[in-house]
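pipeline/complex-builder :: batch 7 item 3
reading input block
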Amino acid sequence: MALDLNMPVLVVDDYKTMVRIIRNLLKQLGFEDVDDAADGTEALAKMKERRYGLVISDWNMEPMTGYELLKHVRADTGLAKTPFIMVTAESKTENVIAAKKAGVNNYIVKPFNAQTLKGKIEAVFTD
Amino acid sequence: MAAKRKVSLQAVVDFIDKERPRDRSGSIGDVIGLAQSMADALESAIARHDRVLHVEFRSMMEQIHTLRQDVVTLRPDQMRSDRLPEAGRELEEIVNATEGATNTIMEAAETLMAADDSDHAAYKALVDEKMVEIFEACSFQDITGQRVAKVVRTLTWLEERLASLAERLRVDEIETPEEETDDERRRRELILNGPQVTGAGVSQDDIDALFL
């Protein structure tokens, strides 16, 4: 799968400031079409309406967490192949392993910088 | 207790043996006498139980009195009306100050990102203005540091009093099964550990190694 800067990206985070930070970083990286959702439930609804090229999601959200969203996405044949990056403050090994088992493409621990985000996005599309 | 009951019943048996007519017939007077004898025996038993209960209730009252005094030393009125609400307000102020500063800094950065740089002098003036705004916004750190210190003092105050109460009540000697609350179950099932203190969580490099 090639990296396409025109693809729509969905940022999922319940903290508006973090959405704004990621949105600005993505803009700096050249992504123009960035959408957002405040939790897994809203994200899943949006993903069923529109095909996103990449999902960047927080873990700790209510009512549906990013981990639950990831499992829903991977269980849905129509969405299963959507690249999914977890960006979270959950930095225990068990979280990373659980996310990997659930099919996450990459995992970024907060706080992070633009270079890390860029590197992980590129890695997802070159794997 | 069994020995005492035996003695009381023996009084009834003795009465029957002594008072019953030889021809084994009974009158209303015999029945009343028997009832009186049983009542006497019961009264004696109840009196003994009363003394035991009295001692036990007195012990319970003393324990409750001691417990009340221990709770009073916790200053629950001050905790409820002053210290905990104040700590909550401080935390709200911290969140608000952090959010306000972040918004100010991000607005400055977004303005600069979107600015027209064709006019060098105007662009430099704008950069200078926004840099000052960013410096000013960063002053939140000093105030939030002081607010955090106040919250920590409250938590320490609470911890010391609870530890002291637990020690006096010897609660560590009581084994209590740990019951998982709904929130704890949700956090366990969804692996919600929250941020870790510096050095406790895995680093980005460790995570990257897992994805090689």
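note: Helices of chain A lie at 16-29, 40-49, 66-75, 93-102, 114-126.
queue -> next item
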